[in-house]
Amino acid sequence: MNLDEMIKVGMADLKVGKSPDVLTTLGLGSCVGVAIYDPVTKISGLLHCMLPDSTQFRNNSNKAKYADSGIDELVAQMLKLGASKVRLVAKIAGGAQMFAMNTNNDTLRVGERNVAAVKMKLSELNIRLLSEDCGLNYGRTVEFYSETGEYVIKSVGKPRKVI
């Protein structure tokens, strides 16, 4: 694979691409990597969101930081490229509990809350969630292949996973 076709998505960032592009983001801990895809046009997008809800913050100008506004923005950019809203499907990864804490304090359970917020937003937009690799206690690096719709998950000390 040509690394020139690898589009890097930073933390609190989003990018869109089209086959043969590969979208990648590193180090998903409690963050969630949301891959959205139109299988006909092969237009894809990847969001690396850090927090569940933009409405909880005053300075929320970075839409990609939050699950709700990030997914809205990602879909808008994909539609501009020619994706069809009715064909969009999603795969998600991340949302880990990175620190061992036996707590019911929701503010510390960011990963769980991020995954729940992503699923709620996808459901609101009628985007079907095809598969997920979320939770547990380890970080993930992901690659989303626009050509095939494969979402590759890599974690230290774990087998490579394709969802």
TrEMBL record:
EC number of the protein: 3.5.1.44
Top-rank EC class of the record's enzyme: hydrolase
Reactions catalysed according to its record: L-glutaminyl-[protein] + H2O = L-glutamyl-[protein] + NH4(+)
The organism of origin for this protein: [Lactobacillus] rogosae
Cited HAMAP family: CheD
A Pfam family recorded for this sequence: CheD
Family: Belongs to the CheD family.
InterPro entries: CheD-like_sf (IPR038592), Chemorcpt_Glu_NH3ase_CheD (IPR005659), Cytotoxic_necrot_fac-like_cat (IPR011324)
Protein's name according to its UniProt entry: Probable chemoreceptor glutamine deamidase CheD
Keywords: Chemotaxis, Hydrolase
Keyword Repeat on entry: no
Role, per record: Probably deamidates glutamine residues to glutamate on methyl-accepting chemotaxis receptors (MCPs), playing an important role in chemotaxis.
Keyword field contains Hydrolase: yes
